[in-house]
Amino acid sequence: MRKKLTLAMFILNIFIVGSAYSESEDIKVNYITPVVASNKFKKNAWLVDAMPEVDYAKSHAVGAINLPNDGPDDIKKILVMDLPFTKNDEIIVYCN
């Protein structure tokens, strides 16, 4: 549960702050180009779409998981989701 909470807080931090800051020393965040993101996704990185659900429904990258930033209840949604990745996996987060 602690790992899931750490991951959820990290993802929410990116959504809210819009920066690459993390209090966890074992999580690295880098800004990358779309081409690099595509190459990493092809090599088993996870792709997380941070757009609101309505925008995700209209259009999103193939294979992306939607974890929207629609408000404070998102952390509760993330905690109960059965996420397919862990904090040790490479995760690419994007939004519009």
What report would you give on this structure?
A 3-stranded parallel sheet has the order 2-1-3, covered by helices on one side. It has one domain (2-94). It has 4 helices and 3 strands, in the order ααβαβαβ. The model is unreliable at 14-22 (pLDDT under 50). It is globular. Helix 1 (2-17) runs antiparallel to helix 4 (74-80). It has 96 residues and is of the alpha/beta class.
Key words describing this protein structure:
96 residues, alpha/beta, three-stranded parallel beta sheet, 4 helices, 3 strands, 10% strand
Largest sheet: 3 strands, parallel
Helix count, DSSP H or I runs of 4 or more residues: 4
Overall spatial form:
globular
DSSP strand content: 5-15%
Rg of Cα set = 13 Å
Outline:
It is built from 4 helices and 3 strands. The chain has helices at residues 2-17, 34-42, 53-58, 74-80, and strands at 46-49, 65-66, 91-94. A 3-stranded parallel sheet has the order 2-1-3, covered by helices on one side.
Annotate the secondary structure layout:
Layout: H1 2-17, H2 34-42, E1 46-49, H3 53-58, E2 65-66, H4 74-80, E3 91-94
